[in-house]
């Protein structure tokens, strides 16, 4: 404040007639002071701008030489701006190129000599129309970026069949500049491999975010629809930049209120912000809504009154939101209502909703994350058992949304056995972007390698090469409807995701949803360049650090296929001792099954037989302790403490070794980051540095607590050189975290 006042005074003086007519020493001194303040102010602004709000769309100035090269190519912009999507593309290019190259391109109505950038569709841009480009195969959302010759001058063209496609292309071009790619001879064609690329917000109407670690919900329901936070537009920009085209606004543990008229007004207002960016809104629908807000006695999907209620509701929604995406439903899972409450099947429930949405072009995403209270079967098996019999019964605007992992988004899970087992039904992948089981927002864990591992896993459903990615993108079974969902890690924290590196998980989700064959490493590389700097002295070590971070977390939390050992309810920190309570499969002991003899969940043909839900070539491998990937050893097998693993160590020694290896990896991440301070603004560097310190402490805590606990079973000494846990098991067990963030309400 003081600074502004002083500046104001100095500036005023400069215009004072006395000073203006007598530019003596005093005047020069004032001028110099003024200049200094300006520089200082500019610096302050730069520092403030680096709080993470701008995500990967910072558009920070490139080095002079690189900028000059690009400027020659991108001197003037020929882009229509007659509707909101076209304006979004044009404004983004003006902003992006202006920021990166220090000068916004001139805007022109037609190509005017060299250095033209043409953006649009054949119908929106006569200049593009005249080029006669081959666009048909690009579909609705695809685009091409090409260097062409127009009247003897090289021009850059971003062309698509739709305005949204052109917007995606604009973001791609900006990505090329941001990551300093050559743009002299471009010939790129892109179209998404997956049709629905959707974020799932587990946001409650009171702004609490279930499993959210980045502050309150960004949806300010109370002030909607009248106040449209500018953040909504930036959210839409960020999503469009990575190709996300849908957002489910509310928690899967849904509140029926969102389907009432006042909330639908709010939904419509958000849809209005999203629409120009190619994003449709969806709602998580509570199956019992007809009873809760409709005054009916039942929500039986075959009851005509219930159907009429949903029909009227769908009509009401579409009157307000003509491009409404549809419903996401969590039914008969963890106490949520569903068709089974009325003696009906998942297919009956999903189809009833699908029928009322179909005339409007809406779809149903019906979740397969189910496990029942009555069936005390291995939880791993229940989704398959319940859903496979219904393959072929779902209407064609239903997708079944299958979690990454048959248990629950664990740090590392084998691919879900439903992938490949329901060829007549489009199966959506549901990844968790928020790190419920991976250290919340404070642990640096890049999820790209985990997504990649799962998408590339071979289901063998139709012989070798039947990857999960091919099931999900619909190509394996010829589905045109396909989708990937990600449980969002977005909140109202200034940096959106709770930590700077968690932004990379939002980013990689979008990029892989667009094209599941992309590599996690390449995506990390482009994200680092856009988010921090192109300097290889920074990019290389940081990408290495990110790529190793998932394995590190698996090692210090749940090595060798252990799973679900986190604190009860909130899932913060280690608690392998959790037992008792309402149901066995909400305890840790159910999952690790440690005894004096050994540890692990026997899911082999002689155990729960979950392995048999996989295609035979996969089942054989998982069933065999000598062939199962060691990362899943204790997922599928109960093994003696003294049995040998591939390294030649005993199982006990290997377990301890991996815990320590994970802690060591975090220590190395800290070292790497500490040495990179001159490449990063102090604000972001400091937060990452402090979060890594927390991660190291917590990794150590995971190791120590887990070893202290499992040693009571193995009874074996620690391998040589391994430090004993500094505290007693009783101490670790006594830790409580009643206010850990993100818990269910
Ligand atoms: C679990 C979460 C819980 C969710 C549930 C789900 O702990 O908060 O409601 O998944 O996906 O992982 O429905």
Automatic annotation (TrEMBL):
Residues 177-496 form the Glycosyl hydrolase family 67 catalytic domain. GO terms for molecular function: alpha-glucuronidase activity; xylan alpha-1,2-glucuronosidase activity. It holds the Pfam family Glyco_hydro_67N. Residues 55-173 form the Alpha glucuronidase N-terminal domain. Keywords: Carbohydrate metabolism, Glycosidase, Hydrolase, Polysaccharide degradation, Xylan degradation. GO terms for biological process: xylan catabolic process. The active site is at 334 (proton donor), 408 (proton acceptor), 436 (proton acceptor). It catalyses: Hydrolysis of (1->2)-alpha-D-(4-O-methyl)glucuronosyl links in the main chain of hardwood xylans. GO terms for cellular component: extracellular region. Coiled coil: none annotated. Its EC number is 3.2.1.131. Residues 498-721 form the Glycosyl hydrolase family 67 C-terminal domain. PANTHER family: ALPHA-GLUCURONIDASE A. Belongs to the glycosyl hydrolase 67 family. Homodimer. This is Xylan alpha-1,2-glucuronidase. It comes from Luteimonas viscosa.
């Amino acid at each position: 404040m003081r600074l502004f006042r002083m500046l104001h005074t100095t500036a005023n003086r400069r215009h004072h007639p006395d000073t203006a007519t007598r530019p003596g020493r005093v005047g020069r001194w004032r001028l110099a002071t003024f200049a200094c303040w300006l520089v200082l102010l500019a610096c302050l602004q730069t520092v403030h701008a680096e709080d993470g709000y701008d995500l990967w769309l910072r558009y920070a100035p490139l080095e002079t030489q690189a900028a000059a090269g690009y400027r020659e190519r991108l001197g003037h912009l020929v882009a229509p701006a007659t509707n909101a999507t076209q304006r979004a593309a044009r404004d983004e290019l003006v902003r992006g190129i202006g920021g990166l190259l220090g000068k916004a391109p001139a805007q022109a109505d037609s190509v005017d000599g060299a250095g033209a950038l043409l953006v649009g569709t054949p119908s929106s841009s006569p200049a593009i129309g005249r080029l006669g480009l081959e666009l048909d195969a690009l579909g609705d959302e695809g685009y091409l970026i090409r260097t062409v010759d127009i009247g003897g001058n090289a021009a850059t063209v971003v062309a698509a069949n739709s305005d949204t496609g052109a917007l995606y292309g604009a973001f791609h071009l900006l990505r090329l500049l941001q990551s300093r790619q050559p743009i002299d001879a471009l010939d790129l064609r892109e179209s998404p491999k997956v049709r629905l690329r959707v974020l799932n917000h587990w946001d409650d109407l009171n702004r609490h975010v279930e499993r959210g670690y980045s502050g309150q919900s960004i949806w300010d329901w109370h002030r909607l629809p009248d106040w449209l936070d500018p953040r909504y537009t930036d959210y839409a920009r960020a999503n469009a930049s990575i190709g996300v085209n849908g957002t489910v606004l509310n928690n899967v543990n849904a509140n029926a209120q969102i389907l009432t008229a006042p909330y639908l007004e709010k939904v419509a207002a958000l849809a209005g912000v999203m629409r120009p960016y190619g994003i449709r809104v969806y709602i998580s629908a509570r199956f019992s809504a007809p009873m809760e807000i409709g005054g009916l006695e039942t929500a039986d999907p075959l009851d005509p009154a219930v159907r009429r209620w949903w029909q009227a509701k769908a009509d009401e929604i579409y009157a307000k939101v003509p491009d409404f995406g549809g419903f996401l439903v969590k039914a008969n899972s963890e106490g949520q209502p569903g068709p089974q409450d009325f003696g009906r099947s998942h297919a009956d429930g999903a189809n009833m909703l699908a029928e009322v949405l179909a005339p409007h072009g809406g779809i149903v995403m019906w979740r397969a994350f189910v496990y029942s209270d009555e069936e005390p079967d291995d939880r791993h098996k229940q989704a398959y058992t319940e859903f496979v019999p219904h393959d072929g019964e779902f209407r064609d605007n239903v997708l079944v949304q299958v979690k990454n992992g048959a248990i629950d988004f664990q740090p590392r899970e084998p691919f879900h056995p439903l992938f490949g087992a329901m060829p007549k039904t489009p199966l959506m992948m549901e990844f968790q972007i928020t790190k419920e089981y991976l250290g919340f927002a404070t642990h640096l864990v890049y999820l790209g390698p985990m997504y990649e591992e799962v998408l590339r896993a071979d289901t063998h459903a139709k012989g070798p090469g039947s990857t999960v990615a091919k099931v999900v993108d619909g190509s394996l079974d010829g589905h045109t409807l396909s989708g990937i969902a990600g449980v969002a890690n977005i909140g109202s924290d200034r940096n959106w995701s709770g930590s700077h590196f968690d932004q990379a998980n939002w980013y990689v989700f979008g990029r892989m949803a667009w094209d599941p064959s992309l590599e996690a490493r390449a995506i990390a590389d482009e994200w680092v360049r856009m988010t921090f700097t192109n300097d290889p002295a920074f990019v290389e070590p940081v990408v290495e650090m990110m790529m190793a971070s998932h394995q590190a977390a698996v090692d210090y939390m749940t090595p060798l296929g252990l799973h679900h050992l986190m604190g009860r309810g909130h899932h913060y920190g280690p608690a392998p001792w959790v037992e008792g309570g309402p149901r066995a499969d909400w305890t840790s002991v159910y999952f690790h099954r440690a005894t004096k003899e050994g540890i692990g969940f026997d899911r082999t043909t002689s155990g729960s037989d979950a392995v048999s839900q996989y295609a035979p070539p996969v089942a054989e491998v998982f069933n065999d302790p000598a062939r199962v990937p060691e990362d899943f050893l204790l997922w599928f097998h109960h093994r003696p403490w003294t049995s040998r693993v591939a390294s030649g160590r005993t199982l006990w020694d290997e377990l301890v070794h991996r815990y320590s290896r994970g802690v060591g990896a975090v220590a190395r991440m800290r070292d790497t980051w500490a040495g990179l301070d001159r490449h990063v603004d102090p604000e972001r560097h400091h937060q990452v540095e402090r979060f890594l310190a927390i991660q190291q402490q917590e990794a150590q805590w995971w190791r120590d607590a887990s070893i202290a606990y499992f040693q009571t079973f193995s009874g074996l000494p620690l391998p040589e050189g391994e430090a004993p846990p500094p505290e007693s098991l009783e101490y670790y067990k006594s830790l409580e975290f009643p206010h850990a963030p993100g818990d269910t309400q």
